[in-house]
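New here. Invent one.

***
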Amino acid sequence: MKRLGIGPLAAALLAAAFALAPREAAAAWRGLKPADSAGEVCLAVKGETFDYALLDRAKPAVLEVRGPRKIKIVSRYLFGPGDAGTGVYTLRVLMDGEEVLRRSYSSPLLAGAARCTGGGEAAALRSTTLRVPTGRHQIQVYAEVEGEGRAAARFFREVKRA
């Protein structure tokens, strides 16, 4: 059996062709501020501060999104005075009035995560991604908590980049 080989010049040209070939666009994420919510809370996490929207069934966080794209929801449990070391909540998401996501989380206390003012510890974050179809859509996000605490979230929209 005869072996076919390629010379060093051909190998270099082949490697260069793969390196210069167009790649699929990678996703980047940009913050998405709710049009309405039950309020905001500042959290300090490992020396950095972040604003989170409070997630309340009576007044859900409302996002206006044009698809197609993905949105990312990063949520945390905010411990109340009588809560133990694990925060439990169910994240619920409605798109145009129809429930599209119901996910329960159990999050442990995160050392170095607390409210910026007034004290109160926070749990480790939980993240979920949602695909938004073509067109304009209203997304409502709220949480049902077990315990004395509250849930809060930050939102991001996918931005295509070349």
